[in-house]
């Protein structure tokens, strides 16, 4: 399972010898990346995001950009190439701090016949250099290293296949970075240790279902509340009845429900919990479509009609042409999305 916020985080830090902050930051980042790549916890051609901040506490950026790397970057050669490019493009000003990170797609081993899966955003690897001190941090968004998954279900086979890989990588990172590992504070999902991530447990000893407790509410929040400082668009919640239609995927499964209410100028998408990440991604597309309808001056029910005519999309799915808007209390619709078949 891949969470939307980190499951665990580890950091490393050490003093530097008055070298270039750009070089020190990139050396730490790419040295650490080579460890993850060796353990196949990072695969493919990565992209490094780099930002160089001006001294003095301001948020002025002397450089910011995304720099693609080759399939297997040679750390020393790549550091020299990237550092030269960045320093050649710096805006005038004194360097205060340098930050860099890589979103790592990686391999999770499975006990089934296929043997492994490729997961997006398995880790985010970061590094920074500031005042002759360099740090690196590793954040995982996966529960593959834990004895129980984020819903509290045992996963002995997955744990046995992946925990040793993470433990070895954390050990090797300390060696490459020449610094002791520092497990960060517990997150909503787990407690990082020097070798992996521990689950949380309930008072009765059962593993906690932190997915339902923390992840599901976070994923549904965007569909129920708009941005705090953005009042442009339909409301995403109301008390009372709405009219809704189902949204289905190409494979026929229900992804969620698109709903509207003219009475409160409200319209949104309610993702079906059982459809997981597929429903969330679909819902984000429908939110964009509703916003376009709002900008065209349509009422919520007019927007619902317009959305129903939208062609099928591999991410968003589609509204069946025979589907007629049905009335239901919004609370009951949310109950249907959360627990319905």
Labels describing this entry:
341 residues, alpha+beta, 2 domains, 7-stranded antiparallel β-sheet, 4-stranded antiparallel β-sheet, 13 strands
Spans of at least 5 consecutive residues with low confidence: none
- Output the strand order for the largest sheet: 3-2-4-5-6-1-7
End-to-end separation in angstroms reads: 21 Å
**Which structural category fits the helices and strands?**
alpha+beta
Total strand segments: 13
- Proportion of residues in extended strands: 25-35%
> Number of domains in the coordinates?
2
Shape: globular
User: How much helix, percentage-wise, in residues?
Assistant: 25-40%
Radius of gyration: 23 Å
Largest sheet: 7 strands, antiparallel
Number of helices: 7
Instruction: Write the H/E string, N to C.
Output: EHEEHEEEHEEEHEEEHHEH
- Compute the average pLDDT: 92
Description of the structure:
- The chain has 341 residues and is an alpha+beta fold.
- The chain has two domains: 8-210, no CATH class; 220-339, no CATH class.
- Helices cover 32% and strands 28% of the residues.
- It contains seven helices and 13 strands.
- The protein has a seven-stranded antiparallel β-sheet with strand order 3-2-4-5-6-1-7.
- Helix 1 packs antiparallel against helix 2 (75-88) and helix 5 packs across helix 6.
- The longest helix is centred in the middle third of the chain and has 22 residues, at 156-177.
- It is globular and about 70 Å long.
Question: What is the secondary structure topology, with strand pairs?
Answer:
Elements: E1 8-15, H1 21-38, E2 47-54, E3 61-68, H2 75-88, E4 95-109, E5 116-130, E6 133-140, H3 156-177, E7 182-183, E8 191-192, E9 197-198, H4 210-224, E10 241-248, E11 254-261, E12 266-271, H5 276-295, H6 300-308, E13 326-329, H7 330-339
Antiparallel strand pairs: 1-6, 1-7, 2-3, 2-4, 4-5, 5-6, 8-9, 10-11, 10-13, 11-12
